[in-house]
Amino acid sequence: MCQVVPVVADSWRVDFGLVMARANSVTTHLYYSDSYMTHFEAVILQALTVEDRPAIILDQSAFYPTGGGQPHDTGELNGIPVVEVIKDRETNQILHILQQPLQGDSVMGQINWPRRFDLMQQHTGQHILSQAILETVDAATVGFHLSREYATIDIARTDLNETSLFKAEQLANRIIYDNRPVTARFVSRDELDRLPLRKPPSVAGPVRVVTIEDFDWSACGGTHVAQTGEIGMIKIVKTERRKDFLRLTFLCGERTLRHYHQINDQIREIALWLTVSVDEALEAIQRQSEALKKAQKDNESLKEVVLIYEAQALLKEAIDVEGVLIINRLLENKTIDEARQLAQLLVQQPKRVTLFGLGGEKGQLIFARSSDVALDMPALLRLAGKLIGGGGGGSLQLAQGGGPYIDKLPAALAEAQAWVTGHLSAGE
Q1: Residue 279 CB partners (closer than 8 Å, separation 6+)
Q2: pTM, whole model, 2 decimals?
């Protein structure tokens, strides 16, 4: 819980004795009885600082505090923006964090209605979707998160496929189309035991139960719509498999409409770019994908042919030392992968050594040998690599590395050739 520190009364221009007398009062949570309340009057019970931010506690409030997976409301108190709303779990009071200090003994409160209604749609939609998943695939919801952009639920199964989720989605939307009443009330423990709650409550004392007629009963302190039809539509837009649960991202209400518009705009742009109709876009993309795969395959085949010709050209320049051909070249317009492929192609035949260098962001060296040439390529790389200010490693037959001194590549290759020539001439 955040640290709450009373402010010196003079700085707030309120009567300190009045503040202290009111401090023990409990805030009445107006949103419990009316989620549609957007304006209210209240008396200031206490002025506080919360993490160096001004805050007040009221005798009653329609502002929903962060909790139960639902974000807090925003709005204004006497025209000053409310930037965060926190519920003190020990006192049950609501802390209104303000953009700037507020003066006076009473306030007029105004809730940011578009945000409130959006959260109402998402939260009630979550109740419906969780119960629909429980009924269709017997999977319980073990987590819920609601943000400004999306909502997620975590399902205690990881084996659900698209068909299963579509059935749950269909049931959820049928409940919405039925426009069933949604009610909320506090019930006693005795009555609670007789209700078919989807999940046992985790709080003691009277429990607030949100009921979707003949469908779902959930212990919940959040704000909800009065009729399921106000949700508009539920759409699952993403699934993520985690360690032991499945996370579903879903949208309700206007969020669903915005998502549809976004997708529709994208597919229209794709169709326009492909110069086809929207209905033909998928087929056109599939054709282009297949053509691209073929072109990539043809390109790889051409690269192999080019490598063979390049290898043959390099062999004509090779130096013969004791029957071993040494190919020494500073390559241009080659990637490190292409240079490595060329080296490996050359040393497939016996009695060959390739010494390649190439520039770029840094100098690169690639040294390779045939399997019947007894030379230590990593040892050679360590020696020549010092000249370009770097190092590297690899196997006995192929090693590569790099360093920042690109201008030293010719000297490094010359050093490498001298080392190879000396070892071959010595019969090592």
Answers
A1: none
A2: 0.70
